[in-house]
Write the C-alpha coordinates for this entry.
Amino acid sequence: MTQMMEMPRVQACTVSGCGYNHDGCTAFAITIGRAKNECDTFIEGNEGGMGQVMAQVGACHRAECVHNTDLECHAPAITVGAAEDRADCLTYSAR
Protein backbone atom coordinates (compact mmCIF):
# COMPACT_ATOMS: atom_id res chain seq x y z
CA MET A 1 0.00 0.00 0.00
CA THR A 2 1.30 3.46 -0.91
CA GLN A 3 1.80 5.77 2.05
CA MET A 4 0.43 9.29 1.69
CA MET A 5 3.89 10.85 1.70
CA GLU A 6 4.87 8.56 -1.19
CA MET A 7 1.99 9.59 -3.45
CA PRO A 8 3.17 11.11 -6.73
CA ARG A 9 2.86 14.87 -6.97
CA VAL A 10 1.05 16.71 -9.73
CA GLN A 11 4.18 18.43 -10.97
CA ALA A 12 2.32 20.70 -13.38
CA CYS A 13 -1.20 21.37 -14.61
CA THR A 14 -1.78 23.61 -17.61
CA VAL A 15 -5.60 23.39 -17.54
CA SER A 16 -6.52 27.00 -16.84
CA GLY A 17 -10.30 26.36 -16.76
CA CYS A 18 -10.17 24.06 -13.72
CA GLY A 19 -11.40 25.38 -10.37
CA TYR A 20 -8.46 23.70 -8.63
CA ASN A 21 -5.77 25.24 -10.83
CA HIS A 22 -4.34 28.40 -9.27
CA ASP A 23 -0.83 28.57 -10.75
CA GLY A 24 -0.73 24.80 -10.17
CA CYS A 25 -3.13 22.19 -8.85
CA THR A 26 -4.37 22.98 -5.34
CA ALA A 27 -6.54 19.87 -4.86
CA PHE A 28 -5.30 17.66 -2.03
CA ALA A 29 -5.43 14.63 -4.33
CA ILE A 30 -6.71 13.92 -7.84
CA THR A 31 -8.15 10.83 -9.49
CA ILE A 32 -7.25 9.73 -13.00
CA GLY A 33 -10.32 8.05 -14.45
CA ARG A 34 -11.08 5.15 -16.73
CA ALA A 35 -12.29 7.26 -19.65
CA LYS A 36 -9.05 7.65 -21.57
CA ASN A 37 -6.61 9.17 -19.07
CA GLU A 38 -8.79 12.04 -17.94
CA CYS A 39 -8.40 13.85 -14.62
CA ASP A 40 -11.72 13.07 -12.91
CA THR A 41 -11.07 15.81 -10.36
CA PHE A 42 -11.42 18.52 -13.04
CA ILE A 43 -14.27 20.96 -12.34
CA GLU A 44 -14.95 23.91 -14.56
CA GLY A 45 -14.89 27.40 -13.14
CA ASN A 46 -15.49 26.82 -9.42
CA GLU A 47 -12.92 28.05 -6.94
CA GLY A 48 -11.64 25.05 -5.05
CA GLY A 49 -8.57 23.62 -3.46
CA MET A 50 -6.42 24.17 -0.45
CA GLY A 51 -4.91 27.49 -1.51
CA GLN A 52 -1.43 26.13 -2.07
CA VAL A 53 0.08 23.92 -4.73
CA MET A 54 0.40 20.44 -3.24
CA ALA A 55 -1.77 18.06 -5.27
CA GLN A 56 -1.01 14.36 -5.35
CA VAL A 57 -2.38 11.43 -7.31
CA GLY A 58 -4.82 9.72 -4.97
CA ALA A 59 -6.08 7.06 -7.37
CA CYS A 60 -5.58 6.00 -10.95
CA HIS A 61 -8.11 3.81 -12.72
CA ARG A 62 -5.85 3.25 -15.76
CA ALA A 63 -4.62 -0.26 -14.93
CA GLU A 64 -2.91 -0.55 -18.33
CA CYS A 65 -0.53 2.37 -17.61
CA VAL A 66 3.12 1.45 -17.03
CA HIS A 67 3.11 3.56 -13.85
CA ASN A 68 0.05 1.81 -12.37
CA THR A 69 0.24 -0.99 -9.79
CA ASP A 70 -2.91 -2.05 -7.96
CA LEU A 71 -4.70 1.10 -9.27
CA GLU A 72 -2.14 3.39 -7.68
CA CYS A 73 0.28 5.61 -9.59
CA HIS A 74 3.98 4.95 -9.03
CA ALA A 75 5.40 7.62 -11.34
CA PRO A 76 7.68 10.05 -9.50
CA ALA A 77 5.36 12.91 -10.56
CA ILE A 78 2.75 13.57 -13.25
CA THR A 79 1.76 16.39 -15.56
CA VAL A 80 -1.86 17.23 -16.36
CA GLY A 81 -2.83 19.13 -19.49
CA ALA A 82 -5.08 19.26 -22.52
CA ALA A 83 -4.91 16.26 -24.85
CA GLU A 84 -7.98 14.30 -25.93
CA ASP A 85 -10.02 15.82 -23.11
CA ARG A 86 -9.78 19.08 -21.19
CA ALA A 87 -7.60 17.64 -18.45
CA ASP A 88 -5.59 14.49 -19.12
CA CYS A 89 -2.67 12.81 -17.38
CA LEU A 90 0.10 13.51 -19.89
CA THR A 91 2.43 11.10 -18.03
CA TYR A 92 0.17 8.16 -18.97
CA SER A 93 1.94 5.51 -21.03
CA ALA A 94 0.35 2.22 -22.09
CA ARG A 95 2.18 -1.00 -21.24
Observations:
- The chain is about 0% helix and 25% strand.
- Residues 17 and 44 are 6 Å apart (CA to CA).
